[in-house]
Amino acid sequence: MVEQAGAERGVAGPEAGAAGAAGAAGAAGAAGAVLEVRGLRTQLGGAARPVTVVDGIDLRIAPGETLALLGESGCGKSMTALSLMRLLPLGGRIVAGSVCLGGHELLSLPEREMRMLRGGRMAMIFQEPQTSLNPVMRIGAQVAEAVRVHEDMDRTRASAWVADRVQELLRAVGIPDPERRAEDYPHQLSGGMKQRVMIAIALAGNPRLLIADEPTTALDVTIQAQVLQLLKRVQRDTGMAVLLITHDLGVVAETAERLAVMYAGQIVEQASCAEFFAAPAHPYSRKLLESLPTAAKRGGQLAMIPGRVPALDQSFAGCRFAPRCDRVLESCATTEPDWQAVSQDQQVRCLLWRAGPSSGVAAASAQAADVAQPGETAMAPAPASALAPKLGAEPLLRTEGLKVWFPIRRGLFKRVVGHVRAVDGVDLTLNAGETLALVGESGCGKTTAGKGLLRLEQPTGGRVTYGGQDLAQLAPARMRRLRKDLQIIFQDPFASMNPRMLIGDIVGEGLQALGIERQAARRRERVAALLERVGIGAEAMTRYPHEFSGGQRQRICIARALAVEPRVIVCDEPTSALDVSVQAQILNLLKSLQQDFGISYLFITHNIAVVSYLAQQVAVMYLGRLVEQGPVADILGNPRHPYTQALLSAVPSIDPDSGREQVRLSGDMPSPAQPPSGCYFHPRCPVARPECAQAYPEAVHLDAQHQVNCLPEIVGA
Amino acid sequence: MRIPAVRGGAHRPQGFQHDPLLLLAVAILALWLLASLSAPWMGLQPNQIDLPRILAPPNAQLWLGADDLGRPVLDRVLMGAGTALAVGLGVVLVSAIGGALIGGFAALGGGLWDRLMVRLIDVFLAFPGILLAIALAGILGPGLGNLVIALAAVGWVGYARLARAQVLSLRSREHVLAARALGVGSGRILLRHLLPLAAAPLMVEATFGMAAAVISEAGLSFLGLGVQPPDASWGSMIRDGVGVLLVAPHLVLAPGIALLLVVLAVNRVGDAWRDYLDVRSRAD
Ligand SMILES: Nc1ncnc2c1ncn2[C@@H]1O[C@H](COP(=O)(O)OP(=O)(O)O)[C@@H](O)[C@H]1O
Ligand code: SF4
Ligand code: SF4
Ligand SMILES: [Mg+2]
What we know:
The structure holds 2 protein chains of 2 kinds. Helices cover 33% and strands 21% of the residues of chain A.
C-alpha cells in the first residue's frame, strides 16, 4: 500500500523539482543550504528571570537531506523547531541570531509574510496527530484548505483543480481509496492514517523544509516504519529537506544522514550518522547510546546518566554537562568548551578533544575501558541466572482461554449490539521469578489482558489460576485478600498517582488498606525504607506528585507496588513515556528488585529492545489472541509467525550492518469488534493462503516451549 | 546582531483586580457575611413593636424606616441576612454532600444501582423543583429546619448528576486502578481518589446552588412556609410589605434590594470562579 501511487506523478511543484535536482546530502555547499541557522537564541518567561531554552544554535540543512536533532526531553528540541517557525508560545521571544530559508532571512519578516511561508515553503508536523486535526472537519476539506492557502489562482479554475490536488496528495501519502477517505472525519481514521493526513497537509504547499517533531513517537513500530518510509520517498521525489526531531536513536540511524545532539539549549555534537554510530565523541552522546537496552547487555546493568537536564534559567560558567559527566576534567567547571573537530564529518563541544582529535580518542577509549570493567564483572554470573529461562521453573500464574469482551451499546435503550473482543482466548504462563514479555501493536489487547489477569476488568470467560484458585471466579472479599500478591505499574506516571495525596500516603496506601501495617508510625518507617530502596529518599514523603519528574514518579509507583510485597507485578509499558537515559534507570531498578525479591513480571511493551534485555519468555499478541510464544532467544532469534517476523523487522536498529530483511506490513490492525474470519492476521499476512480465511490455525508446537499459531507448512514444522 | 524580538501573543482573561464588578460582588458578599455574623451582637431590636412609628419613612433615627408594626426595617433586614445565610449554607451543605455521595456511589457501583439512580435523578429533574419544595414544606410544616430539609431534598439532584459524570470520567484513571489493585475499598476510593478531584466543579455548582437557595428561602417564606413570625426573613418581610406597597414602598424595597444584591453577587463570583477553572484546565 505504501508503495502505491503518487511516487510517479510526484507531489512536487515546479520549484521543488528544481531543488530535487540539487539533491543529495553531500551538496551542503554554502549556497546550496535550504536552511541556515546562526546563533539562534530563544528565551521564555519574564524579562526579570528569562529562561534561555535555545542558546546559540547553528544548523545547516542541504536540499534532500535529513538532519536529526537528538536529546533528552527538556533540552530545547521542540523550542528550536518552534523558533524556526516563529510559533513560540506566549512569552517566548527570539533574542538573537539569524534563520535563513533559501537565502532569505526569516526573523525580520513581517508576521503576514511569515504566515504565508508557514505551511508553504516550510511546514511542520507534530507528535500527536490526534490534536493537530480539526475534529469537526472532513479530512478532504482540511487538505483542501491547506492547498488553497498556498496557491494564488483564479476562482473559476480553482475548485476542480483543488479537488484533484487533494486526491493527489492523499494518494501520495498512501491513503487507500482517497476519494472515499476524503469524506471521513479524523476520528474515523487510525493514528497512522491521521499522521499521513498531517503529512499531506504539510506537503500541500510544496515545502522546501519539513520540520517533523517526534512524528512517529505516538505510533506503533509497524506504522512508524510505514510513515518513515513515506517521508523518505517524498523526500527523494521532491528534494525536500527534513529536520527530524526525535529521541529514538534507531529512527535516527535509519532515516537521517546527519545528526545534531542537543543538551541544555546547545548543540554539543554534530556528525554524519555513520561516524556518530561508529564512535560518538561527546560523553553525553556516548551515554545515550550505552543506556539503550540490548540483548548483549542482558547480564549487567545499563549505563545511566545521573541527575537530570539543568534548569535553563541560570547562567552557566563551564560545560553544562559537567555535573553529570563521568569524564569531567578540572577545567570543565570554569571553561566553556568550544567546537573541536574530531574528523571532517564530526564536531564536538567537549574539552577532552581540545588537544586535537587523538587526545579525545585516547580519553574516550580510556572511558570505554572504564565502563567495560564493572559491566563485565556484572556479566560474569549472568548466563546462569538471567540469560536462559530456568529449567523446571514453576508456573506461578496461568491463564487458560482468558477472554475480556466489552459490550457495544447502541440506541435509546442501550441495547448490546456487539462486543469488542479486546482479549479473545489467551493462554499465558508466568513462571516464578521470571519475566514474561507481552508484545504487540497498540490496541491488540495487551493492557486489557493485564487488567483481566488482576481482575481490574472482569474476565468474560476463561480461567486465571493462581495458588490453586481461579481468580476469575473468586468472591470479591477473597479477591481483595489476594491483591497483596498481584500488583500493577502503569505507563503514564502522571495519571497513576492521585495529585491530591502526599507521596507518603500514596506509597503507604496498600499497607493501610489491606491492614498489613496498622500503626501509622511503623507504616511511615516502612514507606521511608521503600522510598530509599527505589532511590528517591525518605524526605519525599511529605511532598506531592507534581514536584517530581516522570522518572522519579515511576520509581514512586514502583515503591507503591512493592510496599505490599507482591509476587507478581504487571508492568504496563512502564518506560515508554520516559527518555532512554531514564528508561535505563527504571529497567535497572526492576531487574535488581527481581533479583532481590524473586518477583515475577508480566512486562507489557512494544519495545523489542527492552524485551531482549529483560525477558525470559515472550508472548506475541495480535488482535486479542496470541500468535507466538516461547523463550526470548527463540522468538527474537528465530521468529516463525509471519506477524512476529514483520513486527521484529519494523524495529529500527542502530546497528548499520544488521542487514535484516525488511518485511513491511501494509495497513492497520482491524477492529477487535469485527475480527476477520479464520486467522485474524490473514488480511495483512504476506504469505496468506486461501485456507487461512477458513479457520483459526491450531497451535504448532516447535518444541516444548516454542509454539506458533499458523499453518504447519508455513512454520516449517 | 540585534533583531526585533518576535513574540507570541494570546488573549489572557483579566485578573480579579481589573474587574470592578467582581470586586463589588466580593464586597457585597463580605458585607452580607459580616452582617449575618454580627447581627446577634449588635443590640438590634428587630421585634420591638412601637405603634407611634408605624410605617415611618426612612429618617435620621430609623435609616430604613419602620414597618406596619413600627419595627425598625434596618434591624429586620440585618436579621434577615442571617436567616438567608443559614438557609443557604445549610441547603448547600446537605444537598452537595448528599448528592455527591449518591452520584459518586452510583457511578462507582455501576450496574443496576447506577441505572436506578439515573432514573431517580431524571424523575426529580422532570419535576419543577420549587413546587416539590412547596409541597414538602407544606407536609413538614413551617420552620427553618424543615425549610432546609425541603430545599435539600430538591437540591441534591444537580450535585448527584455532576458528581456521577465526574466520577465516570475519573474512575478509569490509573491511580484509581492502582488503588483497587491495592485492595482499597469503594468508599475510600470515592472519598480519597475521586471526590477530591471532582471538588472544583462541585464547588462552582455549590455557589450557584447557594444563590438559588437564598431565593427559594425568600420564596417559601413569602408563601408563609418558611421562617415563622416574629423572626425576620427577607421573603416574609416582602410579603408583609406588599399590602402597603403604595403607602410605604420601603417595606418591600429594602429587603428586595438586599436579596437582589446578594443573589447577583453570588452568581457573579460563581461565574468568575468557573471561568478561572476553565482557563486552568485549558492551560494544563
Ligand atoms: N473499557 C473499554 N471499553 C471498550 N473497549 C475497550 C475498553 N478498554 C479497551 N478497549 C478496546 O479493547 C482493545 C484492546 O485495548 P488495549 O488492551 O488497551 O490494547 P493495548 O494495551 O494492546 O494497546 C482496543 O480496541 C480498545 O479500544
Ligand atoms: S567538557 Fe568536560 S564536563 Fe563537558 S562533556 Fe567534556 S569532559 Fe564532560
Ligand atoms: S495462518 Fe495463514 S494468514 Fe495466518 S499467519 Fe499463518 S500464513 Fe498468515
Ligand atoms: Mg496499552
